[in-house]
Amino acid sequence: MIILLEINDINETVMRPQTSPEAVQPMHPNNFLSDFCIAGFKYYDGLEVFDQLSIGVELDLELEEHNYYDPNAIKILLGDKHLGYIPSEKNELVAKLLRAGYKEIFSLRINRVCPDKHTDGQIHCTLKIISRDQIPSMNASTRKPKVDSAKTAEPKPKRKYTRRTPQPKAQPTVEAVEEVRSE
Questions:
Q1: β-bridge partners, 129
Q2: Cα–Cα distance between 99 and 122 in angstroms, integer?
Q3: 79 CB contacts (<8 Å, ≥6 apart)?
Q4: Residue 39 per-residue DSSP state
């Protein structure tokens, strides 16, 4: 196993296990987005999978739009186990991008495990934006070729707009008025 040392924007060394030399990818300083401890770790399933949480483990993100406490709440998951959330002071941009459908641009990995700390400070993560070349769905081989729209586009037909005129409200009949009065 190879361990790659990586320096992120807060000047701390992060050890990331790699399975093979081919898996080592150059790290770009501009893809760092945020780092944080998992919020609410003690309230969810983290203790059930604590032995699986180690440096370099990739975690999943899921937007929780109907969260009572935070409309930008983002769950952190290991498989189907809910570990906690991205802290609310760091989740707004990520939530906007997740709402827009950009889930695959994020890479969330554990960069520090401190079992002796308070539970909300035990798991520290780094969130990065993956470069376009590393995202399978945005790979050049799967992208559709660009077509010059000026050469191939046909003129669009003009829309016909019709103005709606308000219909006069039906006046109640004498019988209906008499029925209401009699009740």
A1: 106
A2: 29
A3: 49, 60
A4: B
